[in-house]
């Protein structure tokens, strides 16, 4: 009898990827969500997975194992129906650990920033080396075209998220994965809706470290106080350090140009390699360094890893070029934390040279809505030539103070049409428009490209 999995919150990046893997395993898969939009909805539809809009209990099948996403809480009608009807349920990370990861060599990429890109790089390096890894990533690597797959080999690459697991399991998701290879990209305060302070997040990372065998390997950036404090809680696994442009580390990278399109890799043992690739920014070099190091732990040489990186196509919604009109390029990026905003703008500015970078930003994450990052927002945009802030109704606080402290020209719009009109009126041939949000942002990218096509100053 075919097994049936019904996923509550199926259009999240993690849960959608889990659905794709379950289909590969031969499960019947269905699910529901309140927010259904591409790219995940397109992937699910292409895999033949039935989607229901909303959380109506009538969509709950009686013969299914229910997987509950971490965005759902008590009071949700589907959750209440699962409990009332006594349906079997578990979390996504638990299902993945039991059904997929138990017999695999798990390579996990963790940290506040860069998880999606670094795990995409790592999966591609292993793929290019013929290892046919499985993976589950919180984005769509363009080399694969999907965010998750079962894979044919022994290795599984996972983006290891520190967000909590489910309403009934408040541990970080990544403690379920039991990796043998772990990359910690960085460590900052985030997820203010879950964690009261940085120490609480460090404690979760410590729980992850506790699960790694002594024959495994941990890769961390050198000289980062928050990371060092976390490791001081205990580490029983050999560690290798990573550093970009400075610091004494086992793995080092040095940039040859401001945009980081060319850089040099120094691997343990003295091997030095030159890299020329299509990615931008020092933050992506840091991602690549961790991916190269993790890949060597499973037998891929640094030389082969570098060759693969030069063919790495990037990740959807990570500095993704969405189109060009009248010499104005529109990019999409997932940046939703001040550090990520600053890193992305720095990368754009370094690659742009003299041309202008116009930033269009929606502060949308739970931590943003709570206002925990508000003091860092204005400083995060210093590399933009102009900033167009969108004030969502759900933000809960005013962006006026951010505007007052901005070192670059900035405006606030409460209406997306007004926002688009402002961006279009300021755009000139040669500009890069960088849209940053961790949501759909009202389909702004296509609407912006359409409006740019009618801008008189861009007419040929």
What does this structure look like?
This protein is of the alpha/beta class and 460 residues long. It folds into three domains: 4-91, NAD(P)-binding Rossmann-like Domain (Rossmann fold); 100-309, UDP-N-acetylmuramoyl-L-alanine:D-glutamate ligase, CATH 3.40.1190.10; 320-458, Alpha-Beta Complex (Protein-Tyrosine Phosphatase, Chain A), CATH 3.90.190.20. The protein is built from 15 helices and 23 strands. It has helices at 13-24, 40-46, 77-85, 92-99, 115-128, 198-210, 225-231, 282-297, 302-309, 338-352, 366-370, 374-377, 400-405, 416-426, 444-452, and strands at residues 4-8, 28-33, 50-53, 65-68, 89-91, 105-110, 134-136, 148-149, 155-159, 164-166, 169-172, 181-184, 217-221, 239-244, 251-255, 262-266, 272-276, 320-325, 328-333, 357-361, 386-390, 410-413, 432-436. The strands form four sheets. A ten-stranded mixed sheet has the order 8-7-9-6-12-13-14-15-16-17, with helices on both faces. Strands 18-19-23-20-21-22 form a six-stranded mixed sheet, with helices on both faces. The protein has a five-stranded parallel sheet with strand order 3-2-1-4-5, sandwiched between helices. It is globular.
């Amino acid at each position: 009898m075919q097994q049936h999995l019904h996923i509550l919150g199926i259009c999240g990046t993690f849960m959608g990827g889990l659905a794709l893997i379950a289909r590969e395993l031969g499960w019947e898969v269905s699910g529901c969500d309140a927010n259904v939009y591409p790219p995940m909805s397109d992937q699910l539809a292409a895999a033949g997975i039935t989607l229901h809009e909303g959380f109506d209990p009538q969509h709950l099948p009686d013969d299914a194992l229910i997987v509950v996403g971490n965005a759902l809480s008590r009071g949700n009608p589907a959750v209440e129906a699962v409990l009332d009807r006594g349906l079997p349920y578990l979390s996504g990370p638990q299902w993945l650990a039991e059904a997929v990861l138990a017999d695999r060599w798990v390579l996990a990429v963790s940290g506040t920033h860069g998880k999606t890109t670094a795990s995409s790089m790592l999966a591609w390096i292993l793929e290019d080396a013929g290892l046919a890894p499985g993976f589950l990533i919180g984005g769509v690597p363009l080399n694969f075209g999907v965010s998750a797959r079962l894979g044919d080999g022994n290795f599984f690459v996972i983006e290891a998220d520190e967000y909590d697991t489910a309403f009934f399991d408040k541990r970080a998701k990544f403690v379920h994965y039991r990796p043998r290879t772990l990359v910690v990209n960085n460590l900052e305060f985030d997820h203010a809706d879950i964690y009261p302070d940085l120490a609480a997040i460090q404690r979760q990372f410590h729980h992850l470290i506790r699960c790694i065998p002594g024959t495994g390997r941990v890769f961390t950036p050198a000289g980062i106080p928050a990371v060092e404090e976390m490791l001081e809680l205990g580490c029983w696994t050999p560690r290798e350090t990573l550093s970009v442009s400075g610091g004494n580390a086992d793995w080092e990278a040095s940039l040859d140009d401001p945009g980081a399109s060319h850089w040099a890799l120094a691997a343990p043992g003295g091997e030095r390699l030159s890299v020329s690739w299509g990615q931008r920014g020092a933050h992506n070099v840091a991602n690549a360094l961790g991916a190269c190091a993790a890949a060597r732990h499973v037998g891929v040489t640094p030389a082969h890893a570098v060759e693969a990186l030069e063919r790495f196509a990037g990740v959807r919604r990570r500095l993704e070029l969405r189109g060009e009109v009248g010499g104005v390029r529109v990019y999409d990026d997932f940046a939703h934390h001040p550090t990520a905003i600053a890193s992305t703008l720095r990368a754009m500015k370094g690659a742009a040279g003299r041309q202008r970078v116009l930033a269009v930003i929606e502060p949308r994450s739970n931590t943003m809505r709570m206002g925990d990052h508000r003091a860092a927002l204005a400083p995060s945009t210093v590399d933009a030539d102009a900033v167009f802030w969108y004030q969502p109704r759900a933000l809960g606080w005013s962006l006026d103070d951010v505007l007052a402290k901005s070192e670059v020209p900035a405006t606030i719009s409460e209406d997306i049409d007004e926002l688009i009109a402002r961006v279009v009126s300021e755009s000139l041939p040669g500009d890069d428009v960088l849209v940053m949000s961790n949501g759909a942002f009202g389909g702004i990218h296509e609407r912006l490209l359409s409006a740019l096509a009618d801008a008189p100053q861009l007419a040929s």
